[in-house]
């Protein structure tokens, strides 16, 4: 990123109290086997010619994208969420690199649904950088009786997904987003916690286990509520408004630290 944009993003996140040491790390170019874990500390991610970056997850990543449009760098294929904002910034910033950005988020999905479509929607695309935001439905659907699960099952399934990924793509750079919920906005109330916190802790622990970049979205939104109410950032406590999508995109760009 150029100096002015990097400075702007950094100042914005500092205002939200969101910068952590984890946000300043990224992956090196090679990783030692065996799978599943990576023992080396990550280094800055270098964007090379034709780098493929894939956003994966549920409706927050999907954000109304046209699922019939599967090509890279297509506005309609990205929807109107954080992935679109981050992708558009990256395309402009690295215009000379001919990078390829893809979105395969699907609304309503949980880790088991990711596992079912992982070969076609992730492994076959051979991303160099893979960003995953999943987990809110693994908890939410349990609340409304549509799913039987637990934080332990979620973590185990997620670990299997990451193991499969590293076995097929041992050099992929992983970015794991924390599932989040904004209290007292429509569907979300105090009863969501502390059980949701166990799912959030699982994603952080997996990020550490697999040496992935971790984006603490819950902290970002908690801090953002000091600036404006939750309804300013999310429409229902889970899905972002335009402001919330931009908050997430700026955080993604800062923590990913692509160069």
From TrEMBL:
CDD domains: SGNH_hydrolase_like_2 (cd01834). The keyword Hydrolase applies. GO terms for molecular function: phosphatidylcholine lysophospholipase activity. Keywords: Hydrolase. It comes from the Bacteria. Residues 57-245 form the SGNH hydrolase-type esterase domain. InterPro entries: Ester_Hydrolysis_Enzymes, SGNH_hydro, SGNH_hydro_sf. Signal peptide: none annotated. This is SGNH/GDSL hydrolase family protein. It comes from Rhinopithecimicrobium faecis.
